[in-house]
Amino acid sequence: MKNYRSLLIVAGLLMAGAFGLASVAAAQEKEADSDYRQWTKADVIKLLSDSPWAKTQTQRVMRRGQVRSIAGQAESDGSQGGPAMSRTGQLSSVEDAYDYTFTMRLRSAQPVRQAIVRLVQLDSNYDAMTKTERKAFDAQTRELLECKECADYYVVSVGFASSNNSVTDLIYQWFNGQTLPGIKGYVYLANERGGRRDLARFIPPKAPGEEVFFLFPRLDEKGQPLFTPEDKKLLFRMSDVKANSATNFSLDISRLIVNGKVEF
Question: What DSSP string describes 176-216?
Fold first, then answer.
């Protein structure tokens, strides 16, 4: 945890491992003003995957290439010395779809930052540390918790996972090596009234398993935020030619309001 990006990577890897081991169903939705240092791993996982500030969507994708290769084979009864093969049986086995899962998180929202820090704490056995050890640890995670960039930008991250295809990471494939001009018109934030923020910066994943980070200007030329308590929907779109419904997200603004303000 030598710098901000390294902490993000560590936290991302911890999240990937934690989501594979725990169920979000057992946790209660945490209040934004509760003490994050008391959250359990189940609490953290739920907040980071299924909460007002995070949403997970899955799409099933057919294995088209495999289906085509087997569909062209002749049916065999085994009389030529090879194994008996039914074309119908082979097709049913390869038609099992891949599960492609995308998780969008409002990274500039304080509860999300607190949940990530708490996850790092739990992995480091923070609760058993001495007062001096905790002070040193808190100094390492302070940059992520305070997030100076969040004063000027809405920050959104998107991660990818698959329950039955461990060799594919679409987020890495789509955004590694991309440039801002190449994606700026396709990735954006909007509200239901037609207000919109185009992409100002992004941080691509450097390795499979990492999230991609998108930064959008918080204020417009008049100094007004995109989202207010009067709005109803937060819309996040990744609508280039490779995107699909699982990469377009909608969140309920009313669930993001904390102390009269939209917490994002």
Answer: TT--HHHHTTTEEEEETTS-EEE--EEE--SSTTPPEEEEE
Could you give the CA distance from residue 236 to residue 234 in angstroms, rounded to a whole number? 7
Q: What is the pLDDT of residue 95?
A: 57
Evaluate whether 86 touches 154 at the Cβ level (below 8 Å).
no
- By residue count, the chain amounts to 264
Helices within 22-125 (DSSP H only): 41-49, 64-71, 87-94, 110-123
The SS3 assignment for 159 reads: strand
**Cα–Cα dist 1/11, whole Å:** 10
- What is the arrangement of strands in the sheet containing 187-191, beginning at the earlier edge strand? 196-198, 187-191, 233-238, 249-252
pTM, rounded to two decimals: 0.79
Average pLDDT of the segment spanning 148-153: 95
DSSP one-letter code for 60: E
- What lies within 8 Å, CB to CB, of 197 at 6+ separation is 154, 188, 189, 190, 216, 217, 220, 226
Both tokens assigned to 157: 């991250």
